[in-house]
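Page 37, continued from 36.
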């Protein structure tokens, strides 16, 4: 086990294990109704992610990232599970294109519509709302990356841009999640 940890940074190992596990429990191309089997798969995936997070904290002495980045990753994970629970089929996380700047947090299908999802996580609602933090610059970057992704798909593909706001009121509380469907990329 120490050999595995020395080959990859813990964050990379976590990403690889989570993606492998998600592939096992996700029914490929199934955008239909969720069954109790799907719900259990989501709970199992969430449990694996939490265990991996605990192991990452335990074994990563020199890889400590700033708290705001850890909260952001935690918010993206919660948004991922929430969208899956709602029937989205997530096909990419943290998608980047070598041809342009920026990334798209989540890409998934809701029925026959491809959704590009930007996730914003906040620990307070006192300052700027999470959805307001997706400013003109970020929308432009998302639009560029989305165009690159759409080049791989048929021209007739329907798509939209969604924003997911994740708020953590307390450190151990369940997050409040709001989804803004069909948000405008023009700002």
């Amino acid at each position: 086990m120490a050999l595995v940890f020395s080959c990859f940074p813990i964050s990379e190992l976590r990403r690889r294990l989570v993606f492998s596990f998600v592939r096992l429990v996700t029914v490929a191309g199934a955008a239909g109704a969720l069954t109790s089997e799907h719900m259990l798969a989501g709970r199992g995936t969430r449990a694996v992610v939490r265990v991996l997070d605990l192991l990452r904290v335990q074994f990563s002495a020199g890889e400590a990232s700033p708290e705001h980045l850890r909260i952001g990753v935690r918010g993206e994970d919660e948004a991922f599970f929430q969208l899956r629970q709602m029937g989205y089929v997530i096909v990419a996380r943290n998608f980047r294109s070598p041809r342009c700047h920026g990334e798209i947090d989540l890409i998934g299908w809701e029925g026959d519509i491809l959704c590009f999802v930007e996730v914003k996580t906040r620990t307070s609602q006192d300052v700027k709302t999470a959805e307001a933090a997706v400013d003109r610059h970020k929308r432009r970057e998302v639009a560029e990356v989305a165009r690159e992704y759409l080049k791989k798909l048929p021209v007739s593909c329907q798509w939209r841009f969604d924003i997911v706001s994740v708020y953590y009121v307390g450190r151990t509380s369940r997050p409040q999640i709001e989804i803004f469907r069909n948000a405008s990329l023009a700002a």
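The beta strands are 89-96, 103-110, 113-122, 158-167, 176-180. Flag for discussion at group meeting. Residues 1-64 form one domain.
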